[in-house]
Amino acid sequence: MKKPHVLTEQRQEDAIIASVYTYCKENRIDPPTPDRIRRFAHTALHRFDERLCVSIMERLSAETRASLDDLLAVVSQDVEELPATLSSEQDALEEKEAPSPPYARSALSFLKQDAGSVSLESILQETAKLERIHQLALPADLFSQISPKILQGYRQRIAVEELQEVRRCDPSHRDKSGAASREGICQ
User: Fold this and answer.
1) 74 forms bridges with which residues in the sheet?
2) Does pTM top 0.90 for this prediction?
3) Average pLDDT of 96-100?
4) Distance between CA atoms of 90 and 92, rounded to whole angstroms?
5) What residue numbers bound the domain in which 53 lies?
6) Pairwise CA distance, residues 113 & 125, whole Å
7) Which residues pair with 104 in a beta bridge?
8) What is the distance between the alpha carbons of residues 141 and 150, in angstroms, rounded to a whole number?
């Protein structure tokens, strides 16, 4: 009932719904109820995501998939070992004069971290991020068949999602969104 190309160009439910109404009008079909069309649109988006995930996963080696999962592993660090960009948290802890508790963070949160002000340390941190991304060995054309709008949506999603939400996702979604985020960092 929907035009298949709509999903490959954008992920906006309203655009899919409008496409359904246009299709019905062009083919002189009485459209389903608005609630039913909304369910169709939601299902179409979900199925598109699933097919996209499968196609991306098929292109990744087992080693690359394992490396992507490693980005979600939480590693405890002492507060003193944290990068300078987290110094405000460190200062707050030092003011309390409490022993430094371990600070748990993932490699993904490190990659998502803003570069901060320009300094030698921030340049070295950004270089380390790029090296970590390069080590993932993502195929250069992994996202060549995906619309830039859709890819940007995945980048934005992974940028704001909490780690526990990323971990809860189907592993194929994690890999797609995480790989899209890292692809975006490199572009």
Assistant:
1) 106
2) no
3) 45
4) 5
5) 4-59
6) 10
7) 76
8) 16
Q: How many domains does the chain have?
A: 2
Element counts in the chain: helices (H) and strands (E): 10, 2
Residues 68 and 155 in one domain: yes
For 118-176, how does the pLDDT look when each residue is reduced to its tens digit (9 = 90+)?
889 889 989 988 998 898 888 989 988 888 888 888 888 877 877 766 666 555 544 44
Structure tokens at 110: 């490190």
Q: How far apart are CA 152 and CA 150, in angstroms?
A: 5
Q: Are 42 and 162 in contact (CB under 8 A)?
A: no
Q: Does the pLDDT at position 12 exceed 60?
A: yes
Does one domain contain both 123 and 54?
no
Whether residue 52 is found in the same domain as residue 115 = no
- CA geometry: angle at 73 spanning 72 and 76, to 5°? 130
Of the chain, the end-to-end C-alpha distance in Å amounts to 36
In a domain, 95, yes or no: no
- Rounded Cα–Cα distance for residues 41 and 35 (Å): 10
Closest CA to 178 of 162, 155, 160: 155
Q: What pLDDT is stored for residue 39 in this prediction?
A: 94
Q: What is the mean pLDDT of the chain?
A: 75
Q: Which residue has the tokens 């944290």?
A: 82
Q: Which pLDDT score is estimated for 161?
A: 77
Pair 35, 67 in one domain: no
In this prediction, residue 120 carries a pLDDT of 92
Task: Assess whether 66 and 26 both reside in one domain.
Answer: no
